[in-house]
Specification:
- With about 130 residues, the chain is α+β, with helices and mostly antiparallel strands.
- It contains 2 helices and 8 strands, in the order αββββββαββ.
- The chain starts with 8 loop residues before the first helix and ends in an 8-residue tail after the last strand.
């Protein structure tokens, strides 16, 4: 009496194809993509010149003439509120902004930072 085969050749081929597909997807998702990020700083409703964060080579500070005073730090690839004299400090606690869609606002000083651009990196995949 012959033992029945539990694993058939078709099962092995299907498993190999599934592993190849998963590996291909993983490689495609982990390759670095280009990110183009522009910082839009608005002071009292007036838009300052856009800042291309990819072009920043050395950090610098922006100190708009507002009350309460705020200090904005621009670095290669990031921008953030470094200091603010407002009572709640929400703008400072927003941290470093580096990806398109991120926003930080100091309402008492009427200053906002918004990042625009294209991000080719994939952050989620749903099936």
């Amino acid at each position: 009496m012959a033992m029945p085969r539990i694993v058939r050749a078709a099962d092995v081929i299907l498993a190999v194809c599934a592993l190849c597909a998963a590996a291909s997807l993983g490689i495609a998702l982990w390759q670095p993509g280009e990110t183009q990020v522009t910082a839009i700083v608005t002071v009292g409703g007036q838009r300052l010149d856009p800042i291309d964060l990819a072009q920043v080579e050395q950090g610098y500070v922006i100190q708009p003439n507002v009350s309460p005073s705020v200090t904005i730090r621009v670095e290669p690839g990031a921008i953030y509120f470094e200091q603010a004299d407002c009572p709640d400090q929400l703008c400072v606690s927003a941290g470093r902004l580096s990806r398109p869609g991120q926003v930080a606002v100091c309402l008492p000083a009427r200053v906002s930072i918004r990042l625009e651009g294209r991000d080719d990196k994939v952050d989620a995949v749903a099936y």
